[in-house]
Model the fold of this input.
Amino acid sequence: MSVFTIILIVFVAFLAGMEGVLDQWQFHQPLVACTLIGLVSGYLEAGIILGGTLQMMALGWANVGAAVAPDAALASVASAILMVIALIGGSDQGTAISTAIAVAVPLSVAGLFLTMIVRTIAIPIVHIMDGAAARADYTALDVWSIIAICLQGIRIAIPAAALCFIPSEAVMGALNMMPAWLNEGMTIGGGMVAAVGYAMVINMMATKEVWPFFALGFCLAAISQLTLIALGVIGISLALIYLGLKEVAKSGAGAAGSGDPLGDILDDYE
Done:
C-alpha cells in the first residue's frame, strides 16, 4: 500500500471511531466504513460486499442495559484492511472476504476492551470539564470535549495504522496454511452471519402487524425479474400505504367522539 492510501485509511478509521460515539454520519457502520476503505484502496466492489455482509450481522447489535454491543467500528475497519492486504497479495476476492468476515467478530469483541480503556481515560476529562463549567470557561469546555471525542477516533486509527504495515506476504502465507476444510467452513460461516443478524432483527421487530409484510417480502424476493431497486420501491410504497391507513384509522376513531373532549372524559366516568 502507498503512503497516501494508508493515510486515507487511517483517516477513515479515525472518523469511524468518533462516529461510534457521535452516531451522526454513520461512518462506524460496516457498510459505510468497508465501502470507504475499499474506495480509497482501489477495491470498491470487495469493500461493498464485505460491508453489506457485516452490516447484516451488525443489524442485531444494540446496547441493552449494562450489556454493551460489540464494536462495529473496529470490526469493520480491521476486517476491511485485512481483506485489502489479502487482495494485494493475490488472493481471490471470495477467499479474502470470507476470511475478513471470520475475523470480524473476534475483532469486535477486542474493540470493547479498547472502548473501556478510552472511557476510563475520559473520566478525568469529565472532572476537568466540570471545573471549566464552574468557571464559565466555555472555550475549555469546547476544547476538552473535542479531545475526548478524538480519543475515540484514535482508538480505531492506531490499530488501523498498525494493520496497514502487515506485509501482504504474511497474510497470504497464513491463508495458504489454512486447510481446505477451514476455508470451506469460513465461507459457510460467512453466509450464516448475515442470516443470524437478520434473524435477530426479526426477533426484535416481529409483531402480528408486520408478519404479513415479511411473508410478502420473501415471496417478492423469489421473483428473479425484480431488482433490488424494484423491491425497495415496493417496500417503501407498502410502508407509506400502511402509515396512511393507520392515520385514517386514528382519525376515524377520533371522529366517533362528541367533539367535546372534556365531555367525553366525563362521560367515561358515568
Observations:
- Residues 240 and 246 are 10 Å apart (CA to CA).
- The first helix runs from residue 3 to 22.
- Residues 3-206 form one domain.
- The mean pLDDT is 82.
